[in-house]
Structures are given as C-alpha cells and as structure tokens.
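Onboarding guide, step 5: your first structure request.
Type a short instruction followed by the sequence, for example:

Predict the 3D structure of this protein.
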Amino acid sequence: MKIFIDINHPAHVHYFKNIIKRLQNKGHSFVITARDKEMAHDLLNNLNYEFYSRGKGAEGFIKRIVYTIKADLQLYKLALKEKPDLFLSYSSPYCAHTSSLVGKPHIAFDDTENATFMRMLYKPFSDIVLTPKCFRKDLGSQQIRFTSYMELSYLHPKIFQPNKSIYNYLGIEIGKPYVIIRFVAWRATHDIGHKGISLENKMNAVRTFSEWAHIFISSEAELPDELKKYKLNIPKHMIHDALAFSSMYYGESATMASESAILGVPAIYIDNVGRGYTHEQESKYGLVFNFTESKADQLESIKKGVEILQIPKSNWEAKREKLLRENIDLTPFIEYFIENYPESIEVMKKNPGYQERFKMCEPRYVVR
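The system replies with structure tokens like these:
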C-alpha cells in the first residue's frame, strides 16, 4: 500500500513518525509532504524521512486562499505521479482536497474543537475523522472516537524512554528542578481573538518560578529582551526529553500540556477555550490545570505553579500510571485501522470496545 501523508505542523511529525516506520517495515511505502513551519522539516530530516516541501504557508485571509489553491495544485500533481492508495493527515485540507480529486480515501485526525475553519475545509472531503473520545464535538457519521490522546502515538512508554543526556544540553546537574515554559505566537486560524499571557505576567511567572527552579522558555515568537536569557537551546528533537525530567510545564500550548501529562509532569495550560483532552486530563487524572487568559486567572495560574513546585515529583507517578492504564496505545491502533481499511470502519462503529485490545500491546518498539 502507498500512503500519502501531509504534515502541517511539527507536532504532526511526531503523530505519524512511528506509524510510518512500522508500516515501512511491513513493506508499505509513503509519500510525505510538509509545510516549512518551525522545526517540521528539521524533525523529518532527523528521522531520515524523504519529503516534499509545500512552502511556509501564508497569513491573512486572501493570502491563505491563494496558498490553498497553490498547495492543492502541488499535491494534486504529486498524487497523479505517485498514485497513492490512501491519504492520511491531521486535519489537512490540502490532503483532503487532493484525495477527493484523485478519488482515494482520506483518513483525518482531529482533537482541536475550536479549529472550526480548518474543519470546514477538510471534513467535506474526508471519509473518516478519528478523534479522541473526549473530543467535545459531534462530527456525525464520519467520526470514530478512540480512547487515547494524539500524544500517546509517540510518548507511550513502549515507544519513548527519556534520555538523561538532556541535562548536559540544559547545563544543569541531573536531578535539579526546572520548569519548561511555552509561549505561542497566536497566528493559527483557531487562535483568532486570543491574546495569551500578558508580558507583565510572563515576567511575573518567570520571576516567581525561578525562586523554586531553573527556567527554560520555548517560544514561537521572538522573546522580549528581558526573557532572552531563559531561551531553551537544545536539539529540536529532544524537547520531550526536556519535558520528561522537568518539574512542571507552564504555558499556552495544549499539545505540550498533554505531552507533559503523559510523561507524568504536572502542566498548567492557559487558554480561553481549552481542549477536551486537557480538561479530561485535569478532571480524570489531575495532571493538567486549565486556566483562562483573564488577568485574574493568569495570576491564579502562577499561584498554582508555586503550589505544584512544592509537591514531590513522585506524587504524579500514580496519576500517570492511571492515565496509561486507561488509554490505548495509539500507534498499533492506527496501524490496525489503516491495514484493515475500510473494514476497520465497520468494526469500530459496531464494536467501539474492539480498541481495548491495544491497551497492552507488545512487543516494545522504539523510534528515536
């Protein structure tokens, strides 16, 4: 089988990197296209995956429309040449449009409820939309829910074991407490209307947390001069090693909040809308703490951070074990779903509990 995958964000590299390797090992082949966003190309190069670049994308409504037409045409020409059997993406409209043009199925993933505009662009051209069970929207007959999180496709302990050499890159002694802070640029279509943490409270959080731990900041946008000394400078592919040994995550990225929870690290996530998965990871597992972008909530989030930093790290391990025990190992589930498509649709619709067999899947597999 030849599978066409489109990557729109660095996180999507992580979502699909293990399924690519597993299916390649079984004789399947891939055509990969990727937007040149942040470190997406670097991550693919680090994995030695061949791919086609579809450029940097565009900002502004008119420019995005023009870019969509150009990207659709690029992917369409590539699909005509490569003749894939199946298209796979995380809510990529370009992948969905191309699949429809060449008459092949498109399997989409989605876990972002407020990405309404992108969903309008990809969903009508997709055959199936796979979402976490905690996804707060009903997408109709196309939707199939899985009991897991996207981040378990690459951070399940059968796949990922953190590397302590990260301390060398961080420049601190092994075991020293540190906090990872993440600021986003708020340029995505689903970020319209959001402002995030104020500069004043960014400074306030750094100043307050630095009394308890070292501070490292990852930021999509350029950091202000006052915070540049805290910039996280590590190899791009080692961000999850850095999260795994941290004492706490604090920031505006839902993905990194969920990654932290899965790694057993308490996370504070700040966003007016939130995500179904971050709310479940708070209400069910007590590993994520959700706050809005209001001034009052920003201050409360900092207070919560101080409280967390005074709790022993061992306290979070039992919570993590519960999370891992109750959710499926996502990569082998995706493998099953693709290899048995379209029969897997009927299986999952008639018997959603079928996925339970992927909770304790062996053998171990590692892609580093």
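Each response can be followed by summary notes, for example: Residues 361-368 have pLDDT under 50 and may be disordered.
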